[in-house]
Amino acid sequence: MTQGIGASSGIAIGKSFVLPNWEFEVPEQRIDVADFAREFERVYEGIRTSKDEINQIKDELKETVGEEETQIFDAHLAILDDPVFMNEIQGIIQRQYKAAEVAVKEAIDHFVTMFDLLEDDYMRERALDIKDVGNRLLKHLLGVPEIQLPSDTQPFILVAKEISPSQLAHLNPENVLGIVTLSGSTSSHSAIMARALGIPLVVGMEGKIAESLVTGQTILIDGSDGTVHLDPAEHLIKRYRDMQYKLIMAQEQLHHLADHEAVTTDGQFIKLAANISSVKELEIALKGGAQDVGLFRTEFLYMDRQEFPTEEEQFLVYRKVVEKLHGGSVVIRTLDIGGDKHLDYYDMEEEENPFMGYRAIRVSLDQKQLFKTQLRAILRASTYGTIKLMYPFITSVNEVRAANALLEEAKDELMQEGIAFDAHLAVGIMIEVPAAVMIANHLAKEVDFFSIGTNDLVQFTLAVDRMNERIADLYDPYHPAVIQMLSFVVEAAKRNEIPISVCGELAGDIRALPIWLSLGVDSLSMSAHSILPLKERLIHSSQLECKQVFNEVSLSVTSEEIKVILTEYMDVFEETANG
């Protein structure tokens, strides 16, 4: 067994197909001044053909993964239209008298090297986009045919050094059992697409898979925990086949709970909502039993495109989401860029510590017109259903007041223009930094609701960068300090009589359910696949029992003690449920 990083969940067992490196050998080729025009035209023709191909891919994928996910290819089109990229190619042709394919190859290598040297993971991932687009252009200049994948009658597990969105787009999801890559990350465009397509993916296998791996070997992967088995023994294959079957059956058996109310045995109701980033994810969430959206991450509307989305573009998306909920509510979080989320077309200065730098509400309050454009779009959509507005990364009362002042300006503008909106739009904030926890009582007087973002709250409370592999084991949502902070925030919300929800990863962790039931949170928002398993546990739970469990948790001084208490409660629950 070798250990990688699980980037798209699921189990896959089958024969491998090792994808050759998509690297072109371009021999040095000099030209004369008289050839410049011809070489420029070859580049232009290659760009036109490449753009046609990319647009065709987008059209084909819209039916499979949804329009939002295909916006990845807008970034590829933007590269081909980028004057900096073209100037680099033209400059090499004119200054060094090199043929078009040589100039393109050198330009690709230059930009890829530049991006690879950056410390920011997101920007390093963009190097793959440049390589993908550049290699597509090179393919046309060199007349290289497409790599032929196995036929549709032979399902396989794809193994590659890296897999680009363009390569992934050409795959038939029904034919690809899973994917293993040597490089890549969970935040790459390819990982996003693999999750959208439902293909198990393990990344980060550099130096862990023997170079002797060849096409046709049996391989077993688990995209949830990142494990990979080469030539697995029969007993291991049988065990994973059983796991695979149980996962499928367990999910199917839970479908009957989709319309069941999330109420405990002693009458405590908790709303279970979904976290989404696109309309496509909403459709998946609705099938999985969600009736509301507790967190709509709007930053993904801004990513993988050439410019900021217009008010009209945003309005149409927000309206579509709330209309699809058919009476359900959606909490729209305003733009949360910075940290590990960047926009290719918006230059954000490099920072020593971007997670605690220029991000989220700080960007919005600095770029007021950008912020107001989003606020106007949200307000306009609010007449089509129940929409709630939420500000991210709040640390002070002043930030809330400044954001609300801009919201009032947007309302005034719409009124003057005769455009309808919900005058009573609920406004809330995310509690995700210790400062917000400590002044929660003051903040509660300024807003209509709280939502606890546990991912960042844990990170900042424990001073642990959750993306840093060297200290990943210190990232512990069950640390006693985190539990106390959760209690403090919920008490402040209850004291001020405002609703409180949880929208971080901890919301969907079944072990944490006794904490939420005991504290009395109003709603939990999580990834779509977590809703039904959590609902099953909830409707067989007792709030009274959970309060007794939480009393023990509150007295614990280590996270190990807390996890033991919660795990033991889960074991007792399972024994009782199974008779």
User: What is the rounded distance between the termini?
Assistant: 36 Å
Q: Based on helices, strands and strand pairing, what is the structural class?
A: alpha/beta
Give the oligomeric state. single chain
Provide the β-strand percentage band.
Answer: 5-15%
Helical percent range? Answer: 40-55%
Strand count, sense and closure of the main sheet? 8 strands, mixed
What's the overall geometry? globular
- Widest beta sheet: strand line-up: 1-8-7-3-4-5-6-2
Could you give a short description of this structure?
49% of the residues lie in helices and 13% in strands. It is an alpha/beta fold.
Question: How are the secondary structure elements laid out?
Answer:
Layout: E1 2-3, E2 5-8, E3 11-18, H1 36-65, H2 67-70, H3 72-81, H4 83-96, H5 100-116, H6 121-142, E4 156-160, H7 165-169, E5 176-181, H8 189-197, E6 201-203, E7 218-222, E8 227-230, H9 234-253, E9 271-276, H10 279-287, E10 293-297, H11 299-302, H12 311-324, E11 329-333, H13 361-366, H14 368-381, E12 386-391, H15 397-417, E13 426-431, H16 434-438, H17 440-443, E14 449-452, H18 454-461, H19 480-495, E15 500-502, H20 513-519, E16 523-526, H21 528-539, H22 543-555, H23 559-577
Parallel strand pairs: 3-4, 4-5, 5-6, 9-10, 9-16, 10-11, 11-12, 12-13, 13-14, 14-15, 15-16
Antiparallel strand pairs: 1-8, 2-6, 3-7, 7-8
Helix pairs in contact: 1-3, 1-6, 3-6, 4-5, 5-6, 12-14, 14-15, 20-22, 22-23
